[in-house]
C-alpha cells in the first residue's frame, strides 16, 4: 500500500519549519521527519486541503480509485445517496439509494461494505434496522474526535508558512498519555479565509482592527497543529426526525491534555521568537471509533475481518472501526485496513461472492 501511494521520508523542510525547529529541541520535543505520501509533482503549494493542483498529493482518488476505473473494474454512481442497507434473514443483500433522478434504486450484492466515514457510517447502519443486540447498541458509540487546535506565532520576517507540503514534520515527545497525550505537526497555516474566521486570543475571536492587522501580516505567521488523544467518549446518534446528533463529553483527564497541549505549543512559538501568539478554538481533525472492531461482540460492532457481528455479508471499511483514537493522522491506517478487507473479500473464504 505504501509503495502504491509513494510513501517516502521527507526532510526538505521549508523556512518556517527550520525557524521553529531549535525551539522544539530546546523544550525537549525535537521535530522528526515524516513519511509523506507525495510524489515529485509536489511543489509545496500548501493547498492540500483544498485539493492538490499538481496531483502530487496521493490519496485513494488518484491511486486506487483511478486504477480500478482505468481497468474497468469499478462503476461509480455519483450524486447518489444511500438510504439503507437491505437486510434479509440476517444477511445484507444490497443497498437502496436515491440517484440524481430522484428515483429509489436497489442494488443487490454478495457483500456490502459501508465506508461512509466515522460520522456517516453509523447513521446509515442505524437507518438500516440492525437487529437489537449488545453489538448493535454500540453503533455510533465510542466516538473519538481527535480534538485539536492551530496555534500561530507572529515573526518579524516573512515565513511563507502557506508554502509547505502536508504534515511537514512532527514532534512526538508527548505522544503517550503519560507524557501529555498530544502530537504537534509543524508547520501549517489555514488559507486566508480560514485563518481570518478562526483566529482568537484570550479574549475570544479577533475582529475589527486587530483582525485586519493580523491578516496584513499573513506571510509572517507560523502555525502549529496540536492534536490531542481523547478517550472516545463521544457519540453520533439519530433523533426522532432521523437527523444526526453528536455528543462530546470530555473528562477531566482529556481537558488537562488539551490545556497542556495548548500551553506547550505556545511556549514553542515564544521560544522560537514569536512576538505574538494566537490560536483557534477547539476543532476536530480525525474522527474515529464509532463502529469499533474487536474480538468480543459485547464490546465491538465488527469482528477482526470488519464484518458485523449481527448481520452476515455486512462489512465496515473506514475509520469508524479504529478502537481508540490514534494520536497521529490515521489515513494510512485506514487505507491499510481497507486493503486488508479487500484481500479478505477477494479470497472469499466465506463463499459470499461465489
Give an overview of the whole structure.
With about 350 residues, the protein is an alpha+beta fold. It folds into two domains: about 10-35 and about 45-50 and about 145-285, Cholesterol Oxidase, domain 2 (2-Layer Sandwich); about 75-140 and about 290-345, 3-Layer(bba) Sandwich (FAD/NAD(P)-binding domain), CATH 3.50.50. Helix content is about 25%, strand content about 20%. It has eight helices and 17 strands. The chain has helices at about 1-5, 15-25, 65-70, 120-125, 190-200, 210-215, 250-270, 330-345, and strands at about 10, 30-35, 80-90, 90-100, 105-110, 110-115, 145-155, 170, 180-185, 200, 205, 220-230, 235-240, 245, 275-280, 285, 315. The strands form five sheets. Strands 1, 2, 7, 8, 9, 12, 15 and 16 form an eight-stranded antiparallel β-sheet that branches. Helix 2 crosses helix 7 (about 250-270). The model has no long low-confidence stretch (mean pLDDT about 95).
Give structural attributes.
single chain, 354 residues, alpha+beta, Cholesterol Oxidase, domain 2, FAD/NAD(P)-binding domain, 8 helices, 17 strands, 22% strand
In short:
Helices cover 23% and strands 22% of the residues.
Beta strands, count: 17
Mean pLDDT: 94
Question: Helical segment tally?
Answer: 8
- The radius of gyration computed from the alpha-carbon positions, rounded to a whole number of angstroms, is 22 Å
Helix-strand category? alpha+beta
- What is the number of domains? 2
Overall geometric form: globular
Approximate helicity band: 10-25%
Highest CATH level, the class of the largest domain: Alpha Beta
- Fold-level CATH name of the largest domain: Cholesterol Oxidase, domain 2
Report, as a whole number of angstroms, the end-to-end distance.
Answer: 26 Å
Gross CATH architecture of the largest domain:
2-Layer Sandwich
SSE string: HEHEHEEEEHEEEHEEHEEEHEEEH
Strand-residue proportion: 15-25%
Low-confidence stretches: none
How is the main sheet built? 8 strands, antiparallel
Amino acid at each position: 500500500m505504501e509503495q502504491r501511494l509513494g510513501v517516502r521520508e521527507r526532510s526538505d523542510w521549508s523556512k518556517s519549519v527550520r525557524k521553529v525547529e531549535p525551539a522544539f529541541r530546546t523544550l525537549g520535543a525535537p521535530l522528526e521527519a515524516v513519511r509523506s505520501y507525495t510524489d515529485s509533482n509536489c511543489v509545496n503549494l500548501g493547498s492540500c486541503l483544498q485539493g492538490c493542483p499538481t496531483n502530487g498529493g496521493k490519496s485513494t482518488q488518484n491511486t486506487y480509485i483511478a486504477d480500478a476505473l482505468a481497468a474497468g473494474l469499478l462503476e461509480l454512481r455519483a450524486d447518489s445517496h444511500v438510504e439503507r442497507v437491505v437486510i434479509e434473514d440476517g444477511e445484507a443483500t444490497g443497498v437502496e439509494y436515491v440517484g440524481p433522478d430522484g428515483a429509489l434504486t436497489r442494488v443487490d450484492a454478495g457483500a456490502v461494505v459501508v465506508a461512509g466515514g466515522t460520522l456517516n457510517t453509523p447513521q446509515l447502519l442505524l437507518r438500516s434496522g440492525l437487529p437489537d443486540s449488545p453489538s448493535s447498541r454500540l453503533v455510533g458509540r465510542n466516538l473519538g474526535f481527535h480534538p485539536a487546535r492551530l496555534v500561530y506565532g507572529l515573526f518579524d520576517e516573512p515565513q511563507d508558512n502557506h508554502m509547505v507540503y502536508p504534515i511537514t514534520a512532527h514532534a512526538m515527545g508527548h505522544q503517550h498519555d503519560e507524557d501529555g497525550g498530544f502530537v504537534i505537526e509543524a508547520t501549517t497555516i489555514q488559507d486566508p479565509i480560514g485563518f481570518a474566521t478562526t483566529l482568537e486570543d484570550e479574549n475570544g475571536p479577533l475582529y475589527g482592527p486587530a483582525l485586519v492587522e493580523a491578516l496584513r501580516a499573513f506571510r509572517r505567521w507560523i502555525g502549529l497543529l496540536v492534536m490531542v488523544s481523547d478517550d472516545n467518549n463521544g457519540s453520533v446518534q439519530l433523533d426522532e426526525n432521523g437527523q444526526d446528533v453528536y455528543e462530546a463529553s470530555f473528562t477531566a483527564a482529556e481537558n488537562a491534555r488539551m490545556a497542556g497541549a495548548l500551553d506547550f505549543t505556545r511556549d514553542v512559538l515564544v521560544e522560537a521568537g514569536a512576538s505574538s501568539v494566537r490560536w483557534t478554538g477547539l476543532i476536530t481533525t480525525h474522527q474515529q471509533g464509532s463502529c469499533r472492531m474487536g474480538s468480543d461482540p459485547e464490546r465491538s460492532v465488527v469482528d477482526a475481518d470488519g464484518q458485523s457481528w449481527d448481520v452476515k455479508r455486512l462489512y465496515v471499511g473506514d475509520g469508524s472501526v479504529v478502537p481508540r483514537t490514534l494520536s497521529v493522522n490515521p489515513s494510512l491506517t485506514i487505507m491499510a485496513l481497507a486493503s486488508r478487507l479487500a484481500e479478505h473479500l477477494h479470497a472469499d473464504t466465506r463463499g459470499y461472492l461465489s
